[in-house]
What we know:
Blueprint: E1 3-5, E2 8-10, H1 20-32, E3 50-52, E4 55-57, E5 63-67, E6 72-80, E7 86-94, H2 106-111, E8 118-119, H3 120-127, H4 138-185, H5 191-232, H6 236-242, H7 245-255, E9 256-262, E10 265-270, H8 274-283
Parallel strand pairs: 3-9
Antiparallel strand pairs: 1-2, 4-5, 6-7, 7-8, 9-10
Helix pairs in contact: 4-5, 4-8
Amino acid sequence: GDFKFDGIVYKGSHPPLIPYKLWKEVQNAFTARGWKNKCTKGQMAYTGLIKCSGRILDEEGNLTDEICGCAVTGETRRKYRKDNTYRDHTYWRCSNSSRKCSQRDVKYMKEMGRKVSYNQGEIEGLLAQIFEPLHFTDQDRLWMQEMLLDYHHRESDRQKVNFDALQSRYKMLQTYLDKTYEDKILGKISEDMWAEKNDKWMLEQSQIRTQIEAMSDSKQEYIEKGVLLIGLAQRTGITYESANSEIKRKLVEIISSDLWLKDGSIEFSYRKPFDLLVKIGRAS
Protein backbone atom coordinates (compact mmCIF):
# COMPACT_ATOMS: atom_id res chain seq x y z
CA GLY A 1 0.00 0.00 0.00
CA ASP A 2 0.98 3.63 0.36
CA PHE A 3 3.83 4.47 2.71
CA LYS A 4 5.48 7.55 4.21
CA PHE A 5 9.24 8.12 4.05
CA ASP A 6 10.94 11.25 5.43
CA GLY A 7 7.60 13.10 5.57
CA ILE A 8 6.59 12.30 1.97
CA VAL A 9 3.80 9.85 1.02
CA TYR A 10 4.63 7.43 -1.79
CA LYS A 11 2.31 5.04 -3.62
CA GLY A 12 3.31 1.42 -3.08
CA SER A 13 3.36 -1.12 -5.90
CA HIS A 14 1.61 -3.82 -3.82
CA PRO A 15 -2.00 -3.82 -2.51
CA PRO A 16 -2.26 -3.14 1.24
CA LEU A 17 -2.78 -6.20 3.45
CA ILE A 18 -5.18 -4.33 5.73
CA PRO A 19 -7.12 -1.04 5.37
CA TYR A 20 -5.23 2.07 6.50
CA LYS A 21 -8.06 2.96 8.89
CA LEU A 22 -7.69 -0.36 10.70
CA TRP A 23 -3.91 0.03 10.94
CA LYS A 24 -4.35 3.54 12.38
CA GLU A 25 -6.86 2.30 14.96
CA VAL A 26 -4.43 -0.41 16.11
CA GLN A 27 -1.59 2.12 16.47
CA ASN A 28 -3.87 4.44 18.47
CA ALA A 29 -4.81 1.53 20.73
CA PHE A 30 -1.13 0.74 21.36
CA THR A 31 -0.44 4.37 22.19
CA ALA A 32 -3.45 4.62 24.54
CA ARG A 33 -2.27 1.57 26.48
CA GLY A 34 1.30 2.78 26.69
CA TRP A 35 2.67 -0.16 24.70
CA LYS A 36 6.08 0.32 23.11
CA ASN A 37 8.26 -1.63 20.75
CA LYS A 38 10.76 -3.66 22.73
CA CYS A 39 13.93 -5.38 21.58
CA THR A 40 13.76 -9.16 21.69
CA LYS A 41 16.36 -11.12 23.63
CA GLY A 42 19.72 -10.94 21.90
CA GLN A 43 19.13 -7.61 20.19
CA MET A 44 21.24 -4.62 21.23
CA ALA A 45 20.55 -0.93 21.56
CA TYR A 46 22.44 0.21 18.46
CA THR A 47 21.52 -2.65 16.12
CA GLY A 48 20.54 -1.35 12.68
CA LEU A 49 21.55 2.21 13.50
CA ILE A 50 24.90 2.46 11.69
CA LYS A 51 26.11 1.22 8.31
CA CYS A 52 29.65 0.38 7.27
CA SER A 53 31.33 2.85 4.93
CA GLY A 54 34.34 0.62 4.36
CA ARG A 55 35.45 -0.36 0.87
CA ILE A 56 35.53 -3.83 -0.58
CA LEU A 57 39.02 -5.29 -1.08
CA ASP A 58 40.01 -7.23 -4.18
CA GLU A 59 41.79 -10.61 -4.09
CA GLU A 60 45.15 -8.89 -3.65
CA GLY A 61 43.93 -6.80 -0.73
CA ASN A 62 43.66 -3.54 -2.67
CA LEU A 63 40.80 -1.09 -2.19
CA THR A 64 38.05 -1.05 -4.81
CA ASP A 65 35.49 1.72 -5.37
CA GLU A 66 32.66 -0.44 -4.00
CA ILE A 67 31.26 0.65 -0.63
CA CYS A 68 30.46 -2.16 1.81
CA GLY A 69 27.12 -0.81 3.12
CA CYS A 70 26.53 -3.64 5.61
CA ALA A 71 25.15 -3.00 9.09
CA VAL A 72 27.45 -2.40 12.05
CA THR A 73 26.34 -4.97 14.59
CA GLY A 74 27.19 -5.86 18.16
CA GLU A 75 28.56 -9.15 19.43
CA THR A 76 28.66 -10.17 23.09
CA ARG A 77 31.77 -11.91 24.36
CA ARG A 78 32.00 -13.44 27.80
CA LYS A 79 35.27 -12.96 29.68
CA TYR A 80 35.98 -15.09 32.74
CA ARG A 81 37.97 -13.88 35.73
CA LYS A 82 40.39 -15.91 37.83
CA ASP A 83 37.66 -16.46 40.46
CA ASN A 84 35.41 -18.09 37.80
CA THR A 85 33.08 -15.12 37.69
CA TYR A 86 32.52 -13.53 34.32
CA ARG A 87 31.48 -10.32 32.63
CA ASP A 88 29.85 -9.84 29.23
CA HIS A 89 31.38 -7.29 26.86
CA THR A 90 29.76 -5.98 23.68
CA TYR A 91 31.90 -5.24 20.63
CA TRP A 92 30.71 -3.53 17.46
CA ARG A 93 32.03 -4.01 13.95
CA CYS A 94 30.99 -4.41 10.29
CA SER A 95 28.77 -7.47 9.80
CA ASN A 96 30.10 -8.28 6.31
CA SER A 97 31.50 -11.80 6.69
CA SER A 98 31.04 -12.95 3.09
CA ARG A 99 33.27 -10.39 1.35
CA LYS A 100 36.50 -8.62 2.26
CA CYS A 101 35.65 -5.23 3.76
CA SER A 102 38.45 -2.80 4.63
CA GLN A 103 36.93 -2.16 8.06
CA ARG A 104 37.07 -5.88 8.90
CA ASP A 105 40.64 -6.27 7.65
CA VAL A 106 42.97 -6.14 10.67
CA LYS A 107 46.09 -5.40 8.62
CA TYR A 108 44.49 -2.54 6.69
CA MET A 109 42.93 -0.94 9.78
CA LYS A 110 46.20 -1.25 11.71
CA GLU A 111 48.01 0.62 8.92
CA MET A 112 45.31 3.30 9.18
CA GLY A 113 45.85 3.48 12.93
CA ARG A 114 42.25 2.36 13.45
CA LYS A 115 40.45 -0.56 15.06
CA VAL A 116 38.32 -3.32 13.57
CA SER A 117 35.91 -3.52 16.51
CA TYR A 118 34.74 -1.08 19.19
CA ASN A 119 33.49 -1.73 22.67
CA GLN A 120 30.22 -0.25 23.93
CA GLY A 121 31.88 2.80 25.45
CA GLU A 122 33.86 3.50 22.28
CA ILE A 123 30.83 3.29 19.97
CA GLU A 124 28.91 5.61 22.31
CA GLY A 125 31.88 7.97 22.30
CA LEU A 126 31.77 8.08 18.50
CA LEU A 127 28.04 8.83 18.58
CA ALA A 128 28.69 11.64 21.08
CA GLN A 129 30.22 13.62 18.19
CA ILE A 130 26.66 14.29 17.01
CA PHE A 131 25.98 16.43 20.08
CA GLU A 132 29.19 18.48 20.09
CA PRO A 133 27.78 21.44 18.08
CA LEU A 134 24.70 21.56 20.32
CA HIS A 135 26.20 23.62 23.14
CA PHE A 136 24.76 27.13 23.18
CA THR A 137 24.76 30.17 25.44
CA ASP A 138 21.49 31.60 26.82
CA GLN A 139 21.66 34.37 24.22
CA ASP A 140 22.17 31.85 21.42
CA ARG A 141 19.26 29.79 22.71
CA LEU A 142 16.86 32.75 22.69
CA TRP A 143 17.99 33.69 19.20
CA MET A 144 17.47 30.14 17.96
CA GLN A 145 13.98 30.07 19.44
CA GLU A 146 13.09 33.17 17.45
CA MET A 147 14.61 31.71 14.27
CA LEU A 148 12.83 28.39 14.80
CA LEU A 149 9.50 30.14 15.33
CA ASP A 150 9.97 32.20 12.17
CA TYR A 151 10.89 29.08 10.20
CA HIS A 152 7.86 27.27 11.59
CA HIS A 153 5.53 30.08 10.53
CA ARG A 154 6.89 29.97 6.98
CA GLU A 155 6.52 26.19 6.86
CA SER A 156 2.97 26.46 8.22
CA ASP A 157 2.03 28.91 5.47
CA ARG A 158 3.44 26.56 2.83
CA GLN A 159 1.62 23.58 4.31
CA LYS A 160 -1.66 25.52 4.43
CA VAL A 161 -1.46 26.15 0.67
CA ASN A 162 -0.89 22.43 0.06
CA PHE A 163 -3.61 21.50 2.54
CA ASP A 164 -6.18 23.76 0.84
CA ALA A 165 -5.25 22.33 -2.58
CA LEU A 166 -5.69 18.77 -1.34
CA GLN A 167 -9.06 19.55 0.23
CA SER A 168 -10.23 21.25 -2.96
CA ARG A 169 -9.22 18.23 -5.05
CA TYR A 170 -10.93 15.87 -2.58
CA LYS A 171 -14.24 17.77 -2.88
CA MET A 172 -13.93 17.82 -6.66
CA LEU A 173 -13.46 14.05 -6.73
CA GLN A 174 -16.54 13.61 -4.55
CA THR A 175 -18.51 15.67 -7.06
CA TYR A 176 -17.25 13.39 -9.86
CA LEU A 177 -18.26 10.30 -7.86
CA ASP A 178 -21.76 11.59 -7.19
CA LYS A 179 -22.28 12.63 -10.82
CA THR A 180 -21.09 9.35 -12.36
CA TYR A 181 -23.29 7.42 -9.93
CA GLU A 182 -26.32 9.40 -11.10
CA ASP A 183 -25.31 8.82 -14.73
CA LYS A 184 -25.11 5.08 -14.04
CA ILE A 185 -28.57 5.04 -12.46
CA LEU A 186 -30.00 6.97 -15.43
CA GLY A 187 -28.27 4.67 -17.90
CA LYS A 188 -26.05 7.38 -19.38
CA ILE A 189 -22.88 5.33 -18.78
CA SER A 190 -22.25 1.60 -18.58
CA GLU A 191 -21.71 -0.34 -15.38
CA ASP A 192 -18.10 -1.08 -16.39
CA MET A 193 -17.30 2.58 -17.11
CA TRP A 194 -18.82 3.64 -13.78
CA ALA A 195 -16.84 0.95 -11.89
CA GLU A 196 -13.57 2.00 -13.55
CA LYS A 197 -14.00 5.70 -12.78
CA ASN A 198 -15.39 5.02 -9.30
CA ASP A 199 -12.39 2.86 -8.31
CA LYS A 200 -9.91 5.37 -9.75
CA TRP A 201 -11.38 8.39 -7.95
CA MET A 202 -11.93 6.57 -4.65
CA LEU A 203 -8.29 5.47 -4.69
CA GLU A 204 -7.17 9.06 -5.25
CA GLN A 205 -9.41 10.21 -2.39
CA SER A 206 -7.81 7.61 -0.11
CA GLN A 207 -4.34 8.83 -1.07
CA ILE A 208 -5.36 12.44 -0.40
CA ARG A 209 -6.65 11.51 3.08
CA THR A 210 -3.33 9.81 3.80
CA GLN A 211 -1.39 12.89 2.64
CA ILE A 212 -3.52 15.19 4.81
CA GLU A 213 -2.94 12.97 7.86
CA ALA A 214 0.79 12.84 7.08
CA MET A 215 0.93 16.63 6.89
CA SER A 216 -0.70 16.88 10.30
CA ASP A 217 1.64 14.24 11.77
CA SER A 218 4.79 15.83 10.30
CA LYS A 219 3.77 19.26 11.62
CA GLN A 220 3.34 17.88 15.14
CA GLU A 221 6.58 15.91 14.83
CA TYR A 222 8.41 19.04 13.69
CA ILE A 223 7.15 21.04 16.69
CA GLU A 224 8.05 18.26 19.14
CA LYS A 225 11.58 17.92 17.75
CA GLY A 226 12.16 21.67 17.85
CA VAL A 227 10.97 21.99 21.43
CA LEU A 228 13.06 18.99 22.45
CA LEU A 229 16.23 20.43 20.97
CA ILE A 230 15.73 23.85 22.56
CA GLY A 231 15.14 22.16 25.91
CA LEU A 232 18.27 20.03 25.61
CA ALA A 233 20.49 22.70 24.07
CA GLN A 234 21.91 23.82 27.41
CA ARG A 235 22.75 20.35 28.69
CA THR A 236 22.63 18.03 25.69
CA GLY A 237 26.13 16.61 26.23
CA ILE A 238 25.45 15.86 29.89
CA THR A 239 22.04 14.38 29.05
CA TYR A 240 23.57 12.01 26.50
CA GLU A 241 26.50 10.97 28.67
CA SER A 242 24.33 10.15 31.69
CA ALA A 243 21.58 8.31 29.77
CA ASN A 244 21.30 4.56 29.31
CA SER A 245 21.97 3.05 25.88
CA GLU A 246 18.27 2.93 24.95
CA ILE A 247 17.81 6.67 25.59
CA LYS A 248 21.11 7.44 23.87
CA ARG A 249 19.92 5.68 20.72
CA LYS A 250 16.63 7.60 20.83
CA LEU A 251 18.46 10.92 21.13
CA VAL A 252 20.71 9.98 18.20
CA GLU A 253 17.71 8.98 16.05
CA ILE A 254 15.80 12.17 16.86
CA ILE A 255 18.66 14.44 15.90
CA SER A 256 20.52 12.61 13.12
CA SER A 257 20.14 10.19 10.19
CA ASP A 258 22.27 8.30 7.64
CA LEU A 259 24.92 7.17 10.12
CA TRP A 260 28.03 5.56 8.64
CA LEU A 261 31.12 4.15 10.34
CA LYS A 262 34.18 5.26 8.38
CA ASP A 263 37.74 4.64 9.52
CA GLY A 264 37.09 5.15 13.21
CA SER A 265 34.58 8.01 13.04
CA ILE A 266 30.86 8.47 12.49
CA GLU A 267 29.56 10.35 9.45
CA PHE A 268 25.96 11.51 9.63
CA SER A 269 23.37 14.11 8.61
CA TYR A 270 21.31 16.30 10.94
CA ARG A 271 17.55 15.96 10.66
CA LYS A 272 15.31 18.97 10.17
CA PRO A 273 15.04 21.33 11.99
CA PHE A 274 18.24 20.40 13.84
CA ASP A 275 20.35 21.06 10.75
CA LEU A 276 19.07 24.63 10.76
CA LEU A 277 19.73 25.08 14.50
CA VAL A 278 23.28 23.70 14.23
CA LYS A 279 23.93 26.03 11.30
CA ILE A 280 22.64 28.99 13.29
CA GLY A 281 24.69 27.96 16.33
CA ARG A 282 27.88 27.75 14.31
CA ALA A 283 27.22 31.16 12.78
CA SER A 284 26.59 32.84 16.13
